[in-house]
Amino acid sequence: xEPATTASPVRKLGRPTxxxxxxxxxxxxxxxxxxxxxxxxxxxxxxxIAAAARVTKRTIYTYFGNKDGVFTEMQQxxxxxxxxxxxxxxxxxxxxxxxxYGLHSAQMIGLHRLVIAESLRFxxxxxxxxxxxxxxxxxxxxxxxxAEHGEAAAAHAESLYALLLGEDYRRRLLGLLGPVTExxxxxxxxxxxxxxxxxxxxxxxADDAPSAPTATAGSxxxxxxx
Length: 226
Known about the structure:
Layout: H1 18-43, H2 46-53, H3 57-64, H4 67-83, H5 92-103, H6 106-118, H7 123-149, H8 157-173, H9 182-202, H10 217-220
């Protein structure tokens, strides 16, 4: 008599699990970026995104509503990858280096080129990139400046962000430089922080402002006269 065997549990087909939905969502977003970069926003159709992601059009509509929903969530995910979550423990320097590395990456440079090219036809794309990307990164920098250097330092967040972009960012947009390396990102972050500190150290303070010249006895009396 042969021993009884226990049948392996068979997974029933049906709605995907939460883990499966997250994985499928990421799969679509991963496939969407190259499609948008190749065809632009206007010509990147749901058909093309679905084909690249190997899903049906219905799946795209179920998860994102439409092409605009795909693009918006793709932007938001890229921004999170650049500056991380607000509670992510790291120093100001490491955050600054990560922002440089993310913003100067091939993906983000490509996305910014796309938005610049399409901004006249689709101005909302530029607004979203600014709100979901730039302002998010500035807010993260402000939080770290405040935590490490006090409330007054948070006012330098936008200036620091501009330095993290720097001239090299414009060159990369023009295709004159390749993507930044981690070592280069760290150097640029440290240089930007040093410049901010220098600006703080040399900025005239209220107590340091030159006082008005004191009138001499002669000038008070209208001169010595003769």
